[in-house]
Write a structure and sequence with these properties.
The complex is a heterodimer of chains A (about 350) and B (about 80). Chain A has about 350 residues and is mainly β. Chain A has one helix and 28 strands. Chain B has a single domain, classed as Beta-grasp domain (Ubiquitin-like (UB roll)). Chain B is about 20% helix and about 25% strand. In chain B, strands 2-1-5-3-4 form a five-stranded mixed beta sheet. Classes of the chains: A mainly beta (about 350), B alpha+beta (about 80). At the A-B interface, loops of A face helix 3 of B.
């Protein structure tokens, strides 16, 4: 059961642990610095924290002693270009371990649109040319607030075969490889963006994928929160079907998939794209338990008056049991549920704006 | 030798004491600094070796670009632009 959570915020990293007295902030790091994400590698226990130092660029820190001390390792960066407008990594959006047997392999999706791979625990990084060189990349767009360039927000390594991967791009659709990143194909069939001009609505390369989550024990079932709504795939992400039952609204960023039950997933809806607050000022989580035929709107323990929290795309996570969830907001609230979202408790109420939460 | 000094805000993240280095342009003196302090490069330059968008350089009292000249008695200051929040 998840007894530890890494919370990456606009002003530091917070390491929460659950003891006999409940959850507490056990350690902090990088106070004052903008963190975009943090991840504990289950294969070797290393913890990675991605900084976005505003003035001074993106940095990656690694701890080999469980968060006591940190060492700056290499951050992904683009190869030198002849183009004076050549790319530069602007934000480390998603860091994921490679397959269980691929010790030391990491993947990093960035704002800037590059997918990077490290084979040496962040000692060095290489741009994945297979995806970067796709001609369709020129059609990708930035994904909005502080994301001026396309951002790879999701990197899912298939638990059955690490050569198979799904990435989500905001805004560039869903892309998949079956050969470890040598070749890629866009698998956005079924996604649509009603806010685009009619001729572009179903264009696979402009789909704004906010986040994709996969059921660990039924890996062909994936849930996707799109700028335009919620979608589900039951064929490994080859095609997508809109989930119209989501309520109270279809806009949002975050999604979590139950690790064992392919019919259960959680979302955190907001009003709509141009009004990014909870509907009616009521903080809620939407959960389906029946494969999206219906949703329950979960409110217990969450503020139901004058709540303006937004949960960003990496701001929701579920542990390996499917019972514990954590949710962090841009207002600095961190809520935890220990019963699948039926009720929530405030674990921290005065954090900086939360970018990412992750069970560790 | 030109003297190159860095903002205190940068010292929070990476060691960068003032140093006297050779070079006839802003880029050249910064390259001389990075030759002895490789980690500093990515804090000042982006992936394409451009000055980071929110990093400013002054030669003496004058705002400068990477191609601007630097004389042997000049002082080069590397600052960050300020932002709130």
């Amino acid at each position: 059961m998840g007894n530890r959570i890494l919370v990456a915020t606009r002003k530091g990293l917070f390491d929460l642990k659950r003891g006999k007295a409940g959850w507490r902030i056990a350690r902090t790091a990088f106070l004052g610095d903008i963190l975009s994400t943090a991840m504990r590698d289950p294969r070797d226990g290393a913890i990675y924290a991605a900084q976005s130092l505003g003035h001074f660029g993106v940095k990656l820190q690694r701890s080999d002693d469980d968060g006591r001390t940190w060492k700056e390792v290499a951050a992904p960066s683009f190869p030198k270009s002849d183009d004076r407008n050549g790319p530069s990594v602007e934000y480390l959006f998603a860091i994921e371990p490679g397959g269980p047997a691929e010790r030391g392999v990491l993947w990093c999706g960035t704002v800037g649109g590059g997918l990077f791979r490290s084979a040496d625990r962040g000692g060095s990084w290489k741009l994945n040319a297979g995806l970067w060189d796709r001609p369709e990349r020129k059609e990708w767009n930035g994904g909005g607030f502080n994301i001026e360039k396309p951002g790879i927000d999701t990197v899912l390594v298939d638990p059955r075969d690490p050569r198979k991967m799904v990435v989500g791009i905001s805004s560039g659709g869903v892309w998949q490889t079956a050969d470890g990143g040598v070749t890629w194909r866009n698998t956005s069939k079924g996604l649509y963006a009603e806010y685009m001009p009619p001729a572009k609505r179903e264009d696979p390369n402009i789909q704004d994928v906010h986040r994709i989550a996969r059921c660990a024990s039924a890996p062909d079932v994936l849930w996707l929160q799109h700028h335009n709504g919620v979608f589900r795939s039951t064929d490994g992400g080859a095609s997508w079907k809109e989930v119209k039952t989501i309520r109270p609204s279809k806009f949002g960023f975050a999604v979590a998939a139950h690790p064992k039950d392919p019919d259960t997933a959680w979302f955190v809806p907001g009003v709509k794209d141009e009004c990014r607050i909870p509907v009616g000022g009521k903080m809620v989580v939407a959960r389906t338990d029946d494969g999206a035929r219906s949703f329950k709107v979960l409110t217990k323990g969450l503020p139901q008056k004058h709540a303006y929290d937004l949960v960003l795309r990496h701001g929701l996570d579920v542990d390996e049991t499917g019972k514990r969830l954590v949710m962090g907001s841009t207002t600095g609230h961190l809520w935890i549920s220990e019963n699948g979202g039926n009720s929530w408790m405030l674990a921290a109420g005065n954090l900086p704006p939360v970018a990412s939460v992750r069970f560790a | 030798m030109a003297r190159v000094a860095f903002t205190g805000n940068l010292k929070r993240h990476v060691a960068c004491p003032a140093v006297d280095v050779a070079g006839a342009s802003v880029r050249a003196v910064l390259e001389s600094v990075f030759a002895g302090n490789a980690r500093l490069r990515s804090y000042v330059f982006d992936d394409q070796d451009r000055l980071r968008r929110h990093v400013n350089v002054y030669v003496n009292e004058k705002r400068a670009d990477l191609d601007d000249p630097v004389g042997p008695r000049d002082e080069v200051f590397v600052f960050q632009s300020l932002a709130g929040g």
